[in-house]
């Protein structure tokens, strides 16, 4: 049997022998540079090589470099030898360490998302890192670095099959990778345009205008110099966004939503259906010209990592038009719980006042939010709570009822004076912070009670952690059209709570 086939039998397996070298190439490069810089400097200055000026110092330098290099190579080999993984008994286990041993394990039925990551050097050697998050993993995400790309894909398919309930470990053949169908591709031109019209560009242009005016009025060029750090920081942010958003592709498959992106370092994520905790659609002011939106999500485990790492992992759509937003919403929330989802979500994206049944801030409290009071509002369907806010920076937050972990009411003295309150919903950590802003006190209290009841009821109906055991899809779904979300409806009218 092949390596990929024996993964399911409970035996222990090692990662690829080149893994420690791919992980530790920076250390090797530093050793070579430190002990070889003298020769390098001599070559640049035309003073000959070490052989032309061989002495006792050179001998000790070479000996020391050789010892350090051997120690580094020895540690790499020991690291590889003592790194093993096992897939058995509903868990994936990873053992690491020579002197200080460590074992990490995670339940397969708690898998939230799986990534296949290929840094540039790993891509050159055809290797990939398999990384997946579980609901209770916190900072200890399980990583397998590195496997052959085909092996990583096969292992991911096996883990997803176990987690989804379509494989139980007794199978004697490979669990095939689920078929997929691409439903969205982000053109590089639109990505560049979104960066040019981003909030960062807006503020840097304002800063540049202010600096020029101050320089002219004060006859000093010092203000222009202050822009240099901002320009360098903006360039870094632009590059990071372009590098991670390049070639962004979304596909649907029976095991989840698959996202691929990256220019130098590529990443392939698989987010199982129903595991997204909350979703946020935003539209910066300049994007309104072209009708663009972005989507962020909360996924258990993702929000616990460094912001630089987690920011792009929580991006469901870097930039897209309304039909693409509606299509992604239909994937995350296949049952919107309302008979007219097109009208409801459109009102959430662009509406004002009571469009589609949204309940907004009462007129008496307009002074607390002169621009946004007609936008700030909520609407509850049978399956999710929709919260909209922002007049200039439009936001729509969608929280499935079963993902509500706790609820809190906030009311300061000024809000109490005007008879309004904020309602805060708590989900897993991430970029989405659901908050109903300045609702009438009686409305906020009503939503507080009703949302708690809806959450309890929704969690009771979700009896299994294995999503395919609940959904039991029989075939790959067709890519949803612009209006496909209209076909998922319920028999009851939405509850405006």
- Low-pLDDT stretches are 1-6, 466-497
* Gap between N and C termini: 58 Å
Largest sheet: 7 strands, antiparallel
Strand content range: 15-25%
Overall number of domains: 3
- What integer is the average pLDDT? 79
How many beta-strand elements? 21
Radius of gyration: 27 Å
Number of helices: 16
**Strand arrangement, major sheet:** 7-6-5-11-10-9-8
Residue share in helix: 25-40%
- Tertiary shape: globular
User: Structural class, judged by helices and strands?
Assistant: alpha+beta
Question: What are the defining features of this structure?
Answer:
single chain, 497 residues, alpha+beta, 3 domains, 7-stranded antiparallel beta sheet, 16 helices, 25% strand, globular, disordered N terminus, disordered C terminus
Strand-helix topology:
Layout: H1 3-6, E1 12-14, H2 19-23, H3 25-45, H4 56-81, E2 84-88, E3 91-96, E4 102-107, E5 111-118, H5 120-124, E6 127-134, E7 142-148, H6 149-164, E8 181-185, H7 188-196, H8 199-218, H9 222-225, H10 227-245, E9 249-253, E10 256-261, E11 266-271, E12 276-283, E13 293-299, H11 307-313, E14 315-320, H12 322-332, H13 341-350, E15 359-360, E16 377-380, E17 384-389, E18 394-400, E19 406-410, H14 413-418, E20 420-426, E21 435-440, H15 441-461, H16 467-471
Antiparallel strand pairs: 1-2, 2-3, 3-4, 5-6, 5-11, 6-7, 8-9, 9-10, 10-11, 12-13, 12-18, 13-14, 15-16, 16-17, 17-18, 19-20, 20-21
Helix pairs in contact: 3-4, 8-10
């Amino acid at each position: 049997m092949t390596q990929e086939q024996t993964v399911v039998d409970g035996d222990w397996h090692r990662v690829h022998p080149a893994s420690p070298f791919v992980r530790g190439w920076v250390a090797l490069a530093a050793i070579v540079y430190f002990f070889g810089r003298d020769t390098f400097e001599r070559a640049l200055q035309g003073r000959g090589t070490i052989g032309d000026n061989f002495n006792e110092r050179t001998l000790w330098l070479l000996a020391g470099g050789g010892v350090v290099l051997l120690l580094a190579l020895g540690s790499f080999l020991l690291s590889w030898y003592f790194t093993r993984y096992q897939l058995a008994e509903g868990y994936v286990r990873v053992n690491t360490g020579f002197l200080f041993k460590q074992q990490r394990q995670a339940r397969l039925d708690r898998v939230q998302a799986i990534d296949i990551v290929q840094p540039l050097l790993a891509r050159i050697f055809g290797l990939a890192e398999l990384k997946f998050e579980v609901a209770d993993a916190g900072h200890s995400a399980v990583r397998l670095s590195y496997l052959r790309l085909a092996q990583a894909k096969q292992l991911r398919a096996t883990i997803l099959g176990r987690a989804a309930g379509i494989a139980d470990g007794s199978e004697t053949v490979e669990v095939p990778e689920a078929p997929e169908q691409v439903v969205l591709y982000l053109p590089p031109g639109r990505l560049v345009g979104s960066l040019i019209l981003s909030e960062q560009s807006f503020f840097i242009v304002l800063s540049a205008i202010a600096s020029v005016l101050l320089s002219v009025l004060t006859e000093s060029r010092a203000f222009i110099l202050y822009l240099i750090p901002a320009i360098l920081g903006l360039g870094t942010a632009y590059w990071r966004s372009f590098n991670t958003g390049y070639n962004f592709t979304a596909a649907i498959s029976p095991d989840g939503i698959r996202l691929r992106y990256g220019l130098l370092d590529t990443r392939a994520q698989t987010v199982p259906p129903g595991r997204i905790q909350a979703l946020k659609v935003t539209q910066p002011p300049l994007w309104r010209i072209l009708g663009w939106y972005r989507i962020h999500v909360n996924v258990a485990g993702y929000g616990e990592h460094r912001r630089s790492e987690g920011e792009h992992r929580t991006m469901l759509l870097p930039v897209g038009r309304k039909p693409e937003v509606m299509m992604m919403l239909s994937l995350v929330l296949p049952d919107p719980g309302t008979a007219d989802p097109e009208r409801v979500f459109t009102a959430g994206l662009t509406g004002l006042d009571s469009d589609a049944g949204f309940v907004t801030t009462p007129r008496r409290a307009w002074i607390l939010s002169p621009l946004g009071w007609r936008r700030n509002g909520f609407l509850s369907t049978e399956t999710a709570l929709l919260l909209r806010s922002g007049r200039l920076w439009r936001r729509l937050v969608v929280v499935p009822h079963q993902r509500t972990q706790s609820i809190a009411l906030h009311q300061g003295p000024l809000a109490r004076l005007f008879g309004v309150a904020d309602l805060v919903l708590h989900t897993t950590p991430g970029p989405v912070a659901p908050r109903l802003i300045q609702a009438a006190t009686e409305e906020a209290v009503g939503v507080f009670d009703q949302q708690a009841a809806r959450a309890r009821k929704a969690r009771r109906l979700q009896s299994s952690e294995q999503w395919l055991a609940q959904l039991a899809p029989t075939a790959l779904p067709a890519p949803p059209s612009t209006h496909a979300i209209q076909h998922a409806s319920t028999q009851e009218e939405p509850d405006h709570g």
